[in-house]
Specification:
Layout lengths: L1 H41 L3 H9 L3 H7 L3 H8 L8 H4 L10 H11 L3 H10 L2 H8 L8 H4 L9 H11 L3 H10 L10 E3 L12 E3 L8 E3 L9 E3 H18 L3 E5 L4 H15 L1 H7 L13 E6 L9 H9 L5 E3 L6 H4 L7 E4 L2 H10 L3 H9 L2
Parallel strand pairs: 1-2
Antiparallel strand pairs: 3-4, 5-6, 6-8, 7-8
Bound molecules: zinc ion.
The site of zinc ion has 4 residues, from strand 6.
Length: about 375
């Protein structure tokens, strides 16, 4: 009897266990599956979904919808739940060791706003270097600008201390390079583009080849060469100038190779001395004339371009043909070149129109929009 009772007890326990298992499978598993389905459906990866469920973050994550930054940090072994509220506010930008770097920035005391600015202005190298420093105060005043560069941060601070100008201008001027001497800290390129910047900080290499260099027709300039697109637009401009003023525009000097610029510089050096030569002729490799996009324009009616009928018309209309007067009187401190009433640069109609409408130098345009 006793044995039978014990057997019965054993059996009911077994049945209870089985029922519990069945309940678990039938009810809990589908809930878990449904949770996973919901999160995956939003776009989170399998690993992220595991992390979300293991840390009880499902409700918060579902409220946020998909968030690429979160997806990336949740996948990482460096994910730290105490930083969750900051992670979710960050715009995702790809970096090596993303989560680890963000944790370090948070640990150093940077706010989510500052971290967004830091990431936007950094690359892998500059971020690594920045993380080796202690907390830097007031970074937002410079880094809030889209075109700020993290590796220039110390230079921004130094330049503002010396010059007492507002932070946006500091970022622009330092990015141009104005806190350094001409030809001191230069970049060179061997790649041609219609929006390339050539000045005393940006040169072309010895191997540089400009694109589509063609002869200028005799009636528009003697023994001159230019980039083909530049020439086409110059001829259009010249012909329209003739209709408006009775005189056409001519090319006095167009494309120059490195040897020719060297000759020009040396002639100026001998004839007028160092100071004059430095002011009026750029060093070989740093002249816009190497690109085939620059033209020293000559008036047909007179030898002095500045006060001619042709120049007056050209200053007002050049942008419509894609040209800008490159070295204006009021921009000498930015371009590093003394006023040249005759030197035009082809940048295309869109950029020329923007510069015309905003009265902006090409240097400023370049650091604002092209230097990323
Ligand atoms: Zn020139």
């Amino acid at each position: 009897m006793r044995n039978k009772k014990a057997k019965l007890k054993k059996r009911s326990i077994l049945i209870l266990v089985i029922i519990l298992i069945v309940i678990t499978i039938v009810i809990v598993n589908p809930i878990k599956l449904y949770n996973k389905y919901q999160l995956k459906n939003l776009g989170f990866s399998d690993i992220s979904v595991e992390t979300i469920l293991n840390n009880g973050l499902k409700k918060q994550v579902l409220e946020l919808n998909y968030n690429k930054t979160l997806d990336k940090v949740l996948e990482s072994p460096d994910f730290n739940i105490k930083n969750f509220d900051i992670y979710k506010e960050l715009e995702y930008i790809e970096f090596d060791n993303y989560t680890k770097n963000i944790n370090s920035l948070i640990d150093k005391g940077y706010t989510k706003e500052e971290i967004n600015y830091i990431l936007k202005s950094a690359n892998n190298d500059s971020l690594k270097e920045f993380l080796e420093k202690d907390y830097v105060k007031n970074i937002s005043k410079f880094l809030q600008y889209d075109f700020a560069i993290l590796s220039n941060l110390d230079r921004y601070t130094a330049y503002q201390n010396e010059n007492n100008i507002d932070s946006e201008l500091v970022v622009i001027y330092v990015n141009i390079g104005l806190d350094k001497k001409f030809y001191e800290d230069v970049t060179t390129t061997n790649v041609f583009s219609y929006d390339m910047l050539v000045n005393k900080y940006h040169g072309v290499s010895e191997e540089f080849e400009p694109k589509d260099i063609v002869d200028v027709p005799e009636e528009y300039g003697k023994n001159q060469k230019l980039n083909e697109e530049t020439l086409k637009n110059f001829i259009k401009m010249s012909d329209d100038c003739k209709v408006a003023t009775n005189y056409k525009l001519m090319v006095r000097s167009g494309y120059r190779d490195l040897k020719e610029q060297e000759k020009t510089y040396n002639t100026y050096l001998k004839t007028y001395g160092k100071v004059y030569a430095e002011n009026y002729v750029t060093h070989p490799r740093f002249s816009e004339h190497h690109t085939g996009l620059a033209i020293d324009v000559k008036a047909e009616s007179t030898d002095v371009f500045a006060n001619s009928k042709e120049s007056k018309w050209t200053y007002e209309n050049a942008y419509k043909y894609g040209f800008i007067l490159r070295y204006k009187k009021e921009d000498e401190n930015i371009t590093g070149i003394k006023y040249e009433s005759w030197h035009f640069r082809y940048v295309g109609v869109d950029i020329a129109t923007y510069l015309h409408d905003h009265e902006m130098t090409y240097e400023e345009y370049y650091v604002r929009f092209l230097n990323k």
